[in-house]
Write a structure and sequence with these properties.
Layout: E1 3-5, H1 10-19, E2 30-34, E3 37-41, H2 52-70, H3 75-86, E4 90-91, E5 95-97, E6 100-106, E7 114-118, E8 124-128, E9 139-146, E10 152-159, E11 164-171, E12 176-177, E13 182-186, E14 191-193, E15 197-202, E16 219-224, E17 233-236, E18 246-251, E19 257-263, E20 271-275, E21 283-287, E22 294-300, E23 303-308, E24 316-321, E25 331-334, E26 340-346, E27 349-356, E28 359-365, E29 371-375, E30 382-384, E31 394-401, E32 404-412, E33 418-422, E34 433-441, E35 447-455, E36 466-469, H4 484-491, E37 495-499, H5 508-513, H6 521-536, E38 545-550, H7 552-563, E39 570-574, H8 593-596, H9 603-612, E40 625-631, H10 640-652, E41 659-664, H11 675-692, E42 695-697
Parallel strand pairs: 36-37, 36-38, 38-39, 39-40, 40-41
Antiparallel strand pairs: 1-42, 2-3, 4-6, 5-6, 6-7, 7-8, 9-10, 10-11, 11-12, 11-13, 14-15, 15-16, 16-17, 18-19, 19-20, 20-21, 22-23, 23-24, 24-25, 26-27, 27-28, 28-29, 30-31, 31-32, 32-33, 34-35, 35-37
Length: 699
């Protein structure tokens, strides 16, 4: 396959677009008042995901969208190539539980990866196949958590991509379900106490739609094996003074302490511990504020080891005795440096991964904070997955970058020796591609890194189809990682560019905060500047540029095209946060206020949000060809955001470019999406993008 100029006559395509009729979206204005300012919401009715009107609108929009997509002559060619490249065996690093070693494996095109295990003699067997959970692969496996001796497994499942989960309890020897399924679980870990039971978190089921109604009081429960869920003990979160939007519970490896980490927003947590060796002990306060991200990663008897960004924006590892655990008694084990730190426990050591301009640098320390060695990595990219139990000396990690599929490496913790454990057999020649990191200047003079990946020898003539992908929020870092879909894109001559925008975590808390609340415009400016860099340096031009992002990245794309509709030919906002005045009224959206602020905070915050809120800034002008993607079971960023944005754009589009919305049914925010659906989505996205750039793909 290769790119070639379309043979379609522009005039015919123009006439075809003129003939496209969007479904009628009725205007039913509702007026909200913020600090004396009235704001009309013409499509509020689309927020009701339980109504027949909304269901009819979804069906009508999908009919128009798929009618358009089905006419793209090379869409099937893209799907065929995606299926062919996707069809290789993928496995995970092995992990030991009880008498077995477990690992995930996908034979290539299985909708969900399957769990296998080997015994002490190396005999392999299939242990758990999530593809049997449902015929269409839309019931997916979430977390696995084994009891301390490995005899019992508790695993969560998601139905249709929802964040609401169920927990199934399995005897690992007989592979039979041993008791009733735990229901109505959300945003939860599963953490075992010995072999007796486990802690989990959830909300009371909301009134109205469980896919969109607000949930804001998380609660921690303890489930004792052999008892019904109705008897589960409420541990934390039931009283008004313990009300938090998220509460995470975990037990230390030695079963001595229960750790409780309550959060008001997605950033910052309080921290408490409870001595489980004393049945009626009170919670001990470590932090009673949410000014930092602080997590306990291990303990030795009464000494706790914590990773924190309190007074250390790039994070440090500290230790403290439980008798006096508050910050004034913390002692540095691995001090803060100029690079962002993350720490894992592996055997008797700490593995410290530093981000150096979004690239991994890994070091091994002992528990006294003494450097043992730097871990040699196989190249420039991302290393992840470190961590093993205290009695193990072999650890595993995954290495990848934008043109290297994930390889698994084996690390001997005693010697530091690394060796390749598994390499995928994929029909993709990594050596034919190159990645280059550049630093460009944003609007306010800030230097921002971006990695640009493409075929070697690509001519910089301004005509290369380019996907510029961004996120820029929630302290999330975009590190180099291989994507099968983007490999297909680059295989055909496309460029894939990923900037590390402010709002992310690549340079610590200061970088994150520089893209939040009243500084959120920095993120959009960084993304616009990335596009302008690519255009100025002849990688591409506006006619061959597509903007893509999901969730907070969907907000990014929506804000940029309403501010700069001339910047790109194609816009691909996925599951975006697009109504910035009302996002916090749905599900757990209020927990995003650290990054966004809310329209109720102050008149100044309301005005700032309204000034960039994509839904509120659509004007009568020409917009890029836009394919909005969402899912009917997305209860993280409810699809009403995308519905209302699509309606506004369709109503006000003045140019020839199509405005379409693709609504996946029986799917959620993204996690657990079946491989078959993922391939179909990318075939549609790439087909739409190239078609509107005037390009094609041959067989």
């Amino acid at each position: 396959m290769c790119y070639k100029a379309f043979l379609f006559i522009f005039f015919k395509r123009f006439l075809r677009i003129l003939r496209m009729k969007y479904p009628n979206t009725e205007i039913k204005n509702i007026t909200d008042t913020y600090f004396g300012f009235e704001v009309e919401d013409p499509y509020r009715w689309l927020e009701d995901d339980m109504s027949t009107e909304t269901a009819a609108w979804v069906e009508a929009q999908n009919t128009v969208t798929f009618s358009y997509l089905n006419k793209i002559p090379f869409r099937k060619n893209i799907k065929n190539r995606l299926e062919k490249l996707w069809n290789y065996e993928k496995i995970s690093a092995p992990f030991k539980e009880g008498n077995y070693t477990y690992f995930y494996k996908n034979n290539g095109l299985q909708n969900q990866s399957v769990i296998y295990r080997t015994d002490s003699n190396g005999n392999e067997e299939l242990f758990l196949d999530p593809n049997t959970f449902s015929k269409d692969g839309t019931v997916s496996l979430g977390d696995l958590s084994f009891s301390k001796d490995g005899s019992i497994l508790a695993y969560s499942i998601s139905e249709g991509g929802s964040d609401w989960r169920k927990i199934v309890i399995l005897n690992t020897e007989t592979k039979t379900i041993v008791e009733d399924t735990i229901i109505d679980v959300k945003f939860s870990q599963i953490s075992w106490y010995k072999n007796e039971g486990f802690f989990y978190s959830s909300y009371d089921k909301p009134n109205g739609s469980e896919l969109s109604a607000k949930t804001d009081q998380h609660k921690v429960y303890y489930h004792k094996l052999g008892t019904p869920q109705q008897q589960d003990q409420l541990i934390y979160g039931g009283s008004p003074n313990q009300k938090h939007r998220y509460i995470y519970a975990g037990v230390t490896q030695d079963d001595k302490y229960l750790i409780i980490a309550p959060k008001i927003s997605t950033t910052g947590n309080k921290l408490f511990i409870k001595d489980l060796t004393k049945p009626n002990s009170d919670f001990i306060t470590i932090l009673n504020h949410t000014d930092s991200n602080t997590n306990i990663i291990d303990n030795k008897d009464n000494t706790l080891y914590l990773v924190t960004n309190l007074n250390a924006p790039n994070k440090r590892l500290v230790k403290v005795n439980t008798s006096n655990p508050t910050p004034e008694f913390w002692e540095d084990v691995i001090p803060e440096t100029k690079n962002v730190l993350s720490v894992a426990t592996a055997g008797k050591y700490f593995i410290a991964e530093y981000m150096v301009d979004a690239i991994s640098n890994v070091k091994q320390y002992n528990y006294n904070g003494e450097l043992i060695r730097e871990i040699t990595l196989p190249g420039v990219g991302s290393a992840a997955g470190f961590g093993c139990k205290k009695d193990e000396i072999i650890d595993y990690f995954v290495f990848t970058n934008y043109n290297t599929p994930s390889n698994i490496y084996k690390l001997n913790l005693d010697t530091g020796a690394t060796e390749l454990y598994w390499k995928p057999s994929i029909e993709f020649n990594s050596n034919a591609y190159e990645s280059k990191q550049v630093f460009y200047t944003s609007k306010d003079g800030t230097k921002v890194p971006m990695i640009i990946t493409h075929k070697k020898g690509l001519e910089l003539n301004g005509k290369n189809p380019t996907i510029l992908y961004g996120y820029g929020g929630f302290n999330i870092s975009l590190n180099p990682a291989f994507s099968i879909a983007m490999a297909v894109w680059m295989e055909q001559g496309g460029i894939y560019a990923v900037p590390n925008l402010r709002g992310g975590g690549e340079y610590g808390k200061a970088w994150h905060d520089a893209g939040t609340k009243m500084q959120k415009q920095n993120v959009f400016d960084d993304f616009i500047a990335a596009a302008e860099y690519l255009i100025a340096n002849q990688y591409t031009s506006s006619e061959y540029l597509a903007l893509r992002g999901g969730s907070n990245g969907g907000l990014l794309v929506g804000a940029v095209i309403t501010q700069r509709p001339d910047l790109a030919k194609v816009a691909l906002p996925a599951v975006g946060v697009l109504d910035m005045l009302r996002y916090h009224t749905f599900t757990a959206g209020a927990g995003w206020a650290y990054d966004y602020g809310t329209a109720e905070d102050s008149e100044k915050m309301y005005k700032y949000l309204k000034a960039y809120s994509p839904i509120h800034n659509v004007k009568q002008t020409a917009y890029p060809a836009t394919l909005i993607t969402t899912a009917d079971h997305d209860d993280r960023v409810v699809p009403a955001h995308s519905f209302k944005f699509a309606a506004e754009l369709q109503n006000k589009q003045q140019g020839e470019n199509p405005i379409l919305i693709r609504i996946e049914t029986n799917a959620g925010h993204g996690a657990g999406t079946p491989v078959s659906k993922t391939i179909e989505q990318y075939a549609d996205i790439f087909g739409f993008t190239l078609y509107n750039m005037g390009l094609s793909v041959s067989e």
